[in-house]
Amino acid sequence: MASQEMEELVRREYKEGFVTDIESETVPPGLDEDTIAFISKKKGEPEWMLEWRLKAYHQWLKMTPPSWAHLDYPPIDYQAISYYSAPKRPEDRPQSLDEVDPKLLETYEKLGIPLHERAALAGVAVDAVFDSVSVTTTFKEKLQEAGVIFCSISEAIRDYPELVQQYLGSVVPQGDNYFAALNSAVFTDGSFVFVPEGVTCPMELSTYFRINAANTGQFERTLIVCESRAEVSYLEGCTAPQRDENQLHAAVVELVALDDAKIKYSTVQNWYPGDEDGKGGIYNFVTKRGDCRGDRSHISWTQVETGSAITWKYPSCMLRGRDSVGEFYSVAVTNGRQQADTGTKMIHIGEGTRSTIVSKGIAAGRSDQSYRGLVKVGPRAKNARNFTQCDSLLIGDTCGAHTFPYQEIGNSSAKVEHEATTSKIGEDQLFYCQSRGIGEEDAVNMIVNGFCKDVFQELPMEFAVEAEALLNVTLEGAVG
Amino acid sequence: MSDEQRFLDRLAERNAQRGDEPTWIAARRQAGAARFEALGFPHRRIEEWKYTDVRDIARSDFALATDAEFSPATAAALTLPLDAYRLTFVDGVFAPALSDLGALPEGVQVLPLSRALEENHEAVGGPLGRLTGVDFSSFAALNTAFMEEGAVVRLAPRTVVDKPIVLQFLSRAGEQEVMSHPRILVEAGGRSEATLIEHHVGEDGAANFTNLVEEIILERGAILTHYKLQEAPLKDRHIASIHIEQARDSRYVSFNLNLGGGLVRNDLVSDLNGEGAEAIYNGLFYGQGRQHVDNHTLVNHNALRTFSRENYKGILDDRAHGVFNGKVIVKRDSQQIEAEQSNANLLLSDRAEIDTKPELEIYADDVKCAHGATTGQLDEEAVYALRTRGIDEQTARGLLTLAFAGEVMELVDLDAVSERVELAVAGKLPERFNLAGLVETASAFNEG
């Protein structure tokens, strides 16, 4: 490809970068007990919730940010962040799409996700999160019929306090890690899903996250509970407008699967990665953990990570129940000056537990990417099995790809396998495609998509298409 | 009194007995002590020491041995039956009576460190400490503070040594636990070739502490095969920091065989600084009882077209704890690299534990790097298959365990060494068996 063309592609502005002008009701930057009390009051939370938040805050004060990750970023000033932002008029929430602020709908249009169309065509219920307050929830009635609860976490705290109290923090405790503690203190929204015994959720549930107001960190809290023999598939996807200052995102996702329950959680993450000098871009520090509490329960994480300046994310499974299964499928792409330290943890506690890890990393530009994973087999996890495959693809000689797989095996009946490779795109593969008239960039896209196939086929249909497109967009200008 | 202070007091005691030393030695001794004091003993919150607790060393009070007396009969039984050039140290003290250098070929020097310093201390002072400085670890700093004995091996360019060079370290059982801080320096000239065997062994019941630092410099085209056969008594503590610097087209082959020691930690670091340099790491660790064996390896690919291949096998029984951390770093612009890394572990008991972490850090794109780690157990069907052929269960398990180690052991071409390993891993096998044939059969079962 001509170098000039390439330059243009590299300089191409972030397609999803635009700012919607909505007056936010925002608290001044800073974090103390008053901020937390304000958030709690604003959300109309009961007293126990405020106490729960404060407990997390006090634990957070005693903690220090983790420094073990293969990441390089300046220290974050937590007092310079504003912890609450809600679209105006939270009291008169729209009941249907017609009542939604037209500016909001416009934003969705720009993103290429016509909410109503999408919901109707794909049969997907959407709990759209715009900044911190859920704006609209569709298909609620259909879900209600099935007995599935799908609402924002704030609503859940108000309407289903006993469920929330029972499960919130039971997978990721308040003091679990620095960012989880921060999230526990200040989370403003997120989703709550409860699938009762024996129910298979009639549709795939999906939430679109979008960070909007400048200087506002977004602290989502998601809790998904599947009772015995219940099943749900949950989709999470996000984009963010272009910003100059770093935006902090510290989400917590908790999954609980009881006996024979099945949860599939898929993510496409495409937040603003920063400009060509690495300026701006989202800091994405996420704690995601699934608890296979019941026998034969099944939790599966699938992620496509293409955005964010910094990614710090390790979706994990606690395999407690007998014969429970954990899965992790991941594609992470970094370009420009992006940095990602991501992977998974599979903690085998129960007998006969099994886990599979497939991780594909693609590094281009001047980015740095690490796979960091832990497979732990406890002394009681008889006949535990794990298979791990993690491959890295390097595009260009200025990026870095690293693998840090930890294995801690304390049971002689365990079978644990780890394989990893690091290589560049084969010259012969490229030549083969080009000799058949396929342009270089298309050939690279094709090879990269093939490299990621094992993961893409785990994604729900709608996401799989989006993910491939996203991958191509992210790598544009990376090859020459 | 802090643990560190106890060691520093021992150092002060020893320093008071020392005669005049060249100023550079005194200065390094001081730097080592200062660094050790600043770092303190490592603890498990340090990533490099996450799985290894050294409190058993830190809390002990070790004296320094003053003589090298050792029963000749015991020594003879422990010594590898090999025709070799041999230096022997007893608790770190040079034992001339148990050493045999015969007539060294021209261009080969094998000396105790103390003698090398007497002869020409400046020639030692140059390379010593260049690869493993006091910053490497608090154990390297401690070694530098205490260094006084060890071995210097020098090979002139184009020298091919006809017999293996054996450095034998004997550990004595006694009322007072002792420590030693041996220092080994190997300088292999261009296109020289040698086999170095480092053998750690001792009397049953010994509970000493060996803190070894070893620096190996391979000039252009030099080839060194390095056996480290660690059969220390089961209560011995053994820490080794080995650093290899490789120039263009040099080749370093390591056999890091760990059978003994209660608490063992090996750090093996290669700097592949010249194009075409090659590092082959073969490792085996066998743990039983409450043994703790930790192997950390690091290969730095600092130049174009450098190669590394690593294969470590771990066998853990009873409540033994094994640790493997293999790291490959490919520096920016070090293109056309091939690096392979594999760690396979066999757990023979429910209470044994293995923590393994094969790491890759890669900053260049034209590379072929792969690593793998597996953990499993003996195939019960293979045990059954052997039993149907009239082999008792214990022997069958022994044979299969041996077969698991086969990939590494078949590369060992010194019978004296492989016999020691076979005995430790499989126990004494009935003589009527054709061992080689059976191991082959067992390998076939393992693969099938």
UniProtKB/TrEMBL annotation, chain A:
Domain SUF system FeS cluster assembly SufBD core per the UniProt entry, residue ranges: 209-451
Single biological process term from Gene Ontology: iron-sulfur cluster assembly
Chain ranges of the SUF system FeS cluster assembly SufBD N-terminal domain: 140-200
The organism's place on the tree of life at top rank: Bacteria
InterPro entries hit by this protein: Fe-S_cluster_assembly_SufBD, SUF_FeS_clus_asmbl_SufB, SUF_FeS_clus_asmbl_SufBD_core, SUF_FeS_clus_asmbl_SufBD_sf, SufBD_N
UniProt similarity note: Belongs to the iron-sulfur cluster assembly SufBD family.
Name of the protein in question: Iron-regulated ABC transporter membrane component SufB
Protein source organism: Halomonas caseinilytica
